[in-house]
What does this fold into?
Amino acid sequence: MLQHLVTFGHRLREGGVAVNPARIANLCRAIDHIDIGIQEDFHAATRATLVSNSEDLAPFERIFAEYWLTSPEQRQAGPTPEHRRGQEAAPDERDTRGAGRDLVLLTDADECSEPSEAEAMDAISYSHHQALGKKDLGSLDEEEVVEARRLIQDLVKALMNRPGRRHRAAQRGNFIDFRRSFRHNLSQGFEALELRYRRPRIKKLKLIVLCDVSGSMARYSGFLLDFIYALRHELPSTEAAVFSTHLTPITSYLRTRDIARSLQQVADQATGWGGGTDIGRSLAEFNSRYGQSMLSSRAVVVILSDGWDRGDARAMRTEIAQLRRRAHQIIWLNPLLGGKDYQPLCRGIRAALPHLDHFLPAHNLASLADVAALLRTA
Amino acid sequence: MSQSRMPFASIEKLTENFAAEGYLMDRSLATTVFLSNALEKPLFLEGEPGVGKTELAKVLAKILDAELIRLQCYEGLDTSSALYEWNYAKQMLEIRLEEARGIDKQQIGANIFSKEFLLERPLLKAIQVAPPSRAVLLIDEVDRSDEEFEAFLLEVLSEFQISIPEIGTLRASQPPFVVLTSNRTRDLHDALKRRCLYHWIDYPDVEKEIGIVMAQVPGIDKRLAEQLCRFMQWIRTCELYKLPGVAETVDWAKALISLGATELDADTVDATLGCILKFKGDLDMLRQADIAASLPEALGTRGNVAAAQR
It folds into this structure.
């Protein structure tokens, strides 16, 4: 029986359900208490001990049925490893891991500027003329770049220095620290009452920037990378990635001082640069590969994108919901929002909206200043 | 096995006991609760709001005839709200009194940091319950707490002991039955989950929901209960911002009873929709969709189809 349980655990792990020996040990203890002849109970016991995530329920049920509900002979003759891997990558159940694997396949989605994206570009130029002298972020002169830098510093300060909900001891503050006051006065014999205080601890946040570099964003990509650069200058722990049809982490390229060269490197690295957009898939790649290490309750995820998406809106909704559950905040900066007539109508944005903390324009310097102001008061 | 665990003699017995309190559970949830008791592992319940996660802990306490100790989580929850706090006002008075009596200052210090001046917060209270009774500790909406608290919880749940510098280490003579609930607004750390038995509570199917309403709302007409639950099953297939849970169904049933309604018609639904939909956008959407037109669909066979698809 133990052998079976361990093998079953292996199968689950292959199927992407995180099962470790401690959980198997729990299961072994659990089945002492139930009648494993009753299939329903055995099923409940394995599920309660091995799964702890609603996303893992579906793969669990599938593998449970495969492993326990087929006869041993069938199991022996069952799918070979190659076979199984092939099944995993089948389109209907391609999970996040699967999506990352077939990179070669993805490049065929490169035909750029689908109708919707072309429309998007029209919308941009339109808003450009309407912007009453406010320049687009795409075209800044020397002086304005300095101004932009300053705004970005503001933005970072607004984002990073937020009073948290926890407190630390302080000489002065708004809250009396009774415990420390008592301790202190006790040693003084309560001669003259001297109070001790505490104040909110500044919550140190970590910034993760995901930048859309697809066709419809091409106009802004240059500036936005500059923006990422500046953010990293202010906050060296900032992580960055660009995406179009899939995701490319660029943090390592941003370490060098030679901006022009590393931008070129980034452009070389990022496949699908200036091509179509699949935000859902890009986010899925981010969640599965980098989510674990980068996301925490201190992580603020900034998505720079116009939201024109040719991918599956439902996939995007699931991925953004998952991102939201693991991060502190998601801020979506949208250059198109600047246009007066822009309504977040395209499917991608609509799917994402309920999960965003802020959905803000980022089409010129004034809007960046607004973003900073809003975040400071939020 | 101690007296307090007798209600959990078998999975069947457990299901019966819960049913007697008006809580219907399927076999798989019953097995998980049974194992949670047998293995002395915390029960970790996830699911949409209003599917009966908190209710389970309440019923559990009733069955075990145990005290229910509830800790509602929020961001920034700290040890002084979760664990213990000194009663400063009382300490202050005591100091004045003892000073007036001329007691030595060192002695005063020792006196005011004793158990008498300790305010027990939920976690400390739960491990202080004297045997043979055993507390049910409900840690509600743990997803709303922050990582610092989660780490702290991990420590308490694995050792069931709490150190207070001024007093020493307090250990539970009998670990409480711990139920954690989460609405999944964020994922919890794996280390915490690993210590628990997990169960995802889904919306019930129509038969079960009728059973729940009949059990929870005594005196309700079977026909009304059926209509109500069909309607709820249908409404959960709509694209709403917030789907109503079983708690809403029960509230609604009670509201209808007190209005003397015997049947679900468009006017009644319209008047009482606030019982199940709590967002203006959702209310507007349903009203725009014309309740009168969609009611037959909701109550008719299509309600069954939707339930079966679920």
Summary: Strands of chain A lie at 162-170, 175-176, 197-203, 206-212, 239-243, 247-249, 299-304, 329-334, 358-361. Chain A touches chain B at residues 18, 20, 22-23, 26, 29-30, 33-34, 40-41, 43-45, 47-49, 51-54, 57, 164-167, 178-179, 182, 186, 189-190, 296-297, 324-326, 354 (CB under 8 Å). The longest strand of chain A covers residues 162-170.
